[in-house]
Backbone:
């Protein structure tokens, strides 16, 4: 059985993508300025037949203030490039620092199934 790979995007295409939050994810504010993010658990694609996850089980992630800021920007309208610029401005980071940290964090969120990326069809070609 072969797994389907997503087509890879160029750096420019990735920057123009618009992250979208998992609609089932819920935030609980923390006193530290961050938040606890809770999302329904799903078995991995390759192990759905092997792992039994109880109905209603949640996985949780703790976001610091910056992580929460990026999460809130994942609205399906704001591009990755815009998120980088907003982060740079709000936290007084140079663009390179903001880009590296934003891309790494967004990649982690995507791997965990907490966000998806909307890419214009014209950007794929």
Residues:
């Amino acid at each position: 059985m072969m797994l389907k790979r997503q087509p890879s995007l160029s750096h420019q295409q990735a920057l123009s993508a618009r992250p979208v939050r998992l609609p089932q994810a819920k935030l609980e504010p923390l006193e530290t300025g961050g938040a606890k993010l809770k999302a329904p658990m799903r078995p991995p694609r390759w192990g759905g037949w092997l792992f039994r996850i109880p109905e209603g089980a949640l996985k949780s992630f703790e976001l610091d203030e910056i992580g929460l800021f990026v999460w809130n920007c994942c609205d399906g309208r704001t591009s990755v490039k815009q998120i980088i610029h907003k982060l740079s401005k709000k936290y007084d980071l140079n663009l390179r620092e903001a880009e590296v940290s934003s891309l790494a964090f967004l990649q982690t969120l995507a791997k965990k199934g907490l966000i998806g990326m909307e890419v214009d069809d014209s950007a794929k070609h």
